[in-house]
């Protein structure tokens, strides 16, 4: 009798644990946003990327795809800003069609405000329109090193230049029309140059107000066509108080902009080496938030579980601010696919901490 009772109890315990696991899995797989963010492919890689969408994104129930386009498009309104090799409208329509087929929300990104250069290279906007440069006195080095005397990470455009928005909003409208998108990702991460003392327009101004003002200007423009603004969240976090540092949070006091930005924007909250719980902070500030892992599968798995827990335990008022998870990839699409399919010649495909391993792990959850 005792043995039978013990067996029954053990069976009941296994049953309860199974129900709990299934409940957790259901909670995780039904996150509203199950995203993937990567650089847009080059023209020769579009068909391969379409195949990846069908066979890998759709089968994992990915429902949101952010493509970092920047100047990788044959812009008609401002052809001077095109990359030398750029996607055509026909290329974009291939991506649009496959995403519609699998109910994936396709959204383009162009870096606005910051990231107007990288290392020793000035990107297309400031190269074509150097008058928009927030720090024209900072010259691009022949050999880039960090740290450097100018504090140069990436250039920014001046948000108060009277002509800058006429140019960038033309790009935004054209790429959103091509993507047939109801949202736009403006980047806006890692903005170190803002309100520079030597800028004749914004020198001496409050950097938080400048940042919030640019967010509001972009958001107001997008609203004219019922489009939603997405940005990275690092500039809205205090890097000193939190100890998160100057990269994934702010050292130049832009963090106070969190109380000034419109509440209908979407925050992409990235933390790559720790599973920081800042999604709670954004949600409690009234902002919708998506947690974004990169290359650490263990951190990514915790972030998925955290987001599920935040939604489960939140009040009805806060629950819908926790939107979900988005895998980020900080390479070109071709390099990612080479690693994902195990074709890298240097052996790095098998390393544990890679974006493709992180992608597989978080979507196994």
TrEMBL record:
What family does the Swiss-Prot or TrEMBL record give for this protein? Belongs to the glycosyl hydrolase 20 family.
Annotated GO biological processes are: carbohydrate metabolic process
Supply the name of the protein.
Answer: Glycosyl hydrolase family 20, catalytic domain
One Pfam family of this protein, by short name? Glyco_hydro_20
- GO MF annotation list: beta-N-acetylhexosaminidase activity
| Ranges where the Glycoside hydrolase family 20 catalytic domain occurs | 84-293
Alphabetical keyword list: Hydrolase, Signal
Show which residues constitute the signal peptide: 1-23
Q: What is the lineage of its organism?
A: Bacteria, Pseudomonadati, Bacteroidota, Cytophagia, Cytophagales
